[in-house]
Specification:
The structure holds 2 protein chains of 2 kinds. Chain A is mainly alpha-helical. Chain A contains 9 helices and 2 strands; from the N terminus they run αββαααααααα. Chain B is α/β, with parallel strands linked by helices. The chains are: A mainly alpha, B alpha/beta.
Chain lengths: ~325, ~280
């Protein structure tokens, strides 16, 4: 059931991405060319001032319209370049952990911002996700007289899947965008260059503390989210399904195996790495001033959310295979 | 009270050698080649004024000299080290011996003025009890001792530039780059900034590259000096004066259009250069 849902979600995401790429490659250039056509004609002959005091007539060249093949080539090249830059930044963020200088205070500050700052939304959403899970599944189980199984399914779903992915998406929405806008603003106001000019490596000072802080705090946030979700589920099952709190809690704990916890934990680590590195990459590659900062912020949330969902599919498959082989 | 500053403690270039040397440097971006074979040298304790219209590559030239950008071709030597192809890790070490004053100050907006100035000292692992006096010393030098606990957003544009100068000189670097330090400032504040740069030059003896589009900044550097004894800015030619060597570079179309002394620039008959003198 869960696997089928994941496959369906992944297929939908891929289809949406392909359609978006097709729009960027074919439709958007055509639309832009059409919209520029009258302006191009006007530009053919105009007065171009080459000094502040004089203006001489010059032949203004009409901008060349790129072919679809050129657009596709450029797109492929820029995509490969972006993936390469992202990989290099991520590798450096990890490599920096092995040598000094280490910015411990910056890491602690980021843990406070990312971890403690995200706690209210994680607690609130975790509680209600647990409760709604019980309401949805409990109604089905009641039809077969197996309402007590609700604890089992809610517990497994939260630990294996919903806890890590929902927490990952929430923190991506809050922190990936925050990281991108903060670093982007620093970049456009030359603060990153100033840092480099003073002999500081921005990847050490800005990227590694954020990645490390997210790697530490996201698993903790997920654990709290799952726990609060189980409490929410318990409250809902007592009030709605008339199952005793002890029964719900016993079944919820008993069904969980070591492989389930490892599956959830490994996902949070990967999601943390994705949301932090994507935020940093987008922030440090802002182009176009403050407008670019806004664009980078949106891109950070979109890219990190999509990557979290896509990687979730593969991680689930991998975790199930490993559980089959070793546990 | 004037802080007790001594002449530059670090002058690692060999006597008579160039502190900064550009040789046939090219740099281009997707749109066009911005620098097309720039060659010049700045001797130790010399001030080079980079003059040019907006977009001629003055800032790029400074960033190349600081190793913040790599040239497409050509060589750049700073403090006797070839930096054009130097890896980032080694460049970080070179940059620790360079001061850079950015056009808009580029102060860290989440840190106070004191923390901004102390940033480099923290990075260098200087002990906390040593940092306080050094920060207040340089803040006194730029006459902003009272702003130590303020945030950059609470300061005026001119004050931010002065804090930026304080931040650049806190480690007493032998070379300082100024990127349009007076751009967008009123004449009086501009004069204050230039006086400060004069004081810095004549007190510490730094080598400087100063990018500007205001000719008067360059002439002020060439014709005035700061006397540490009387603590006054004096016109060149006054008794006992010996103004530090200053020369001009005018950039145009990615090349050095003019290189010479202030007198040569002043008496040039070239129509393009004369437009700077109007």
């Amino acid at each position: 059931m869960l696997g089928a849902f994941s496959r369906l979600a992944a297929n939908s995401v891929w289809r949406a991405l392909i359609l978006y790429r097709l729009y960027l490659c074919c439709l958007q250039p055509t639309l832009l060319t059409l919209s520029r056509a009258p302006v191009t004609l006007l530009l053919r002959e105009k007065l171009v001032a080459d000094t502040p005091l004089q203006a001489t007539p010059q032949e203004a060249r009409a901008p060349e319209v790129p072919s679809v093949r050129e657009v596709l080539e450029d797109l492929a090249k820029s995509t490969v370049l972006k993936v390469q830059d992202y990989s290099k930044l991520s590798a450096r963020a990890i490599r920096n952990l092995a040598s000094g200088p280490r910015y411990v205070q910056d890491t602690v500050d980021q843990m406070d911002d990312i971890g403690v700052g995200s706690l209210p939304i994680v607690l609130l959403s975790g509680f209600f996700i647990g409760a709604v899970m019980v309401l949805q599944t409990g109604a089905q189980f009641e039809r077969f007289g197996q309402a007590s199984l609700t604890g089992d399914i809610v517990s497994l779903a939260l630990i294996r899947e919903l806890g890590p992915s929902i927490t990952g998406l929430l923190v991506a929405g809050r922190c990936s965008s925050g990281i991108a806008s903060e670093l982007g603003s620093m970049l456009v106001t030359e603060q990153v260059d100033a840092m480099r000019a003073m002999g500081t490596d921005p990847s050490r000072k800005l990227v590694t503390p954020r990645v490390l802080a997210t790697l530490i705090t996201l698993p903790l946030l997920t654990t709290i989210s799952v726990f609060v979700g189980l409490i929410g589920g318990m409250v809902a099952s007592v009030l709605s399904l008339r199952i005793s709190a002890t029964t719900f809690w016993e079944r919820a704990i008993k069904i969980v195996q070591f492989s389930d916890i490892m599956q959830g934990f490994s996902k949070t680590v990967v999601f943390a790495f994705i949301l932090a590195t994507v935020g940093c990459y987008q922030g440090l590659n802002v182009k176009g001033g403050t407008q670019g900062v806004g664009r980078a912020t949106t891109q950070a949330v979109v890219v990190s959310s999509v990557l979290i969902i896509v990687s979730d599919t593969f991680l689930t498959r991998l975790a199930l295979w490993l559980a089959d082989k070793f546990f | 009270m004037e802080p007790a500053l001594t002449a530059s403690s670090a002058t690692p270039t060999a006597p008579g050698s160039a502190a900064i040397e550009f040789n046939n440097v090219h740099l281009g971006f997707t749109e066009a080649e911005i620098l097309r074979g720039v060659t010049f040298a700045a001797q130790e304790r010399e001030t080079v004024i980079l003059l040019g219209e907006t977009g001629t590559g003055k800032t790029l030239l400074l960033k190349l000299a600081a190793g913040l950008l790599h040239p497409d071709s050509g060589s750049i030597r700073v403090l006797n080290q070839e930096i054009s192809a130097m890896p980032e890790r080694e460049l970080l070490e070179v940059r620790r011996r360079i001061g850079f004053v950015f056009q808009e100050g580029a102060l860290f907006d989440s840190l106070t003025v004191g923390e901004n100035v102390a940033y480099r000292l923290h990075e260098d692992g200087v002990r906390d009890e040593e940092i306080g006096p050094r920060v207040s010393e340089v803040l006194k030098f730029v006459e902003l001792a009272h702003t130590v606990d303020m945030l950059p957003s609470d300061l005026s544009g001119g004050m931010r530039r002065r804090v930026s100068i304080a931040r650049a000189l806190v480690t007493r670097p032998p070379i300082v780059f100024y990127d349009s330090p007076t751009a967008g400032l009123d004449p009086i504040t501009s004069q204050t900034i230039i006086s400060l740069i004069l004081r810095l030059r004549d007190t510490y003896g730094v080598t400087a590259l100063l990018a500007t589009h205001r000719l008067q900044d360059g002439f002020a550097m060439a014709n005035f000096r700061f006397d540490p004894q009387t603590k006054k800015v004096l016109r060149d030619g006054s008794p006992g004066s010996q103004t530090a060597k200053t020369h001009f570079l005018v950039l145009r179309d990615g090349r050095i259009y003019f290189e010479g002394t202030p007198d040569e620039l002043m008496h040039s008959q070239d129509r393009y250069l004369q437009r700077f003198l109007i």
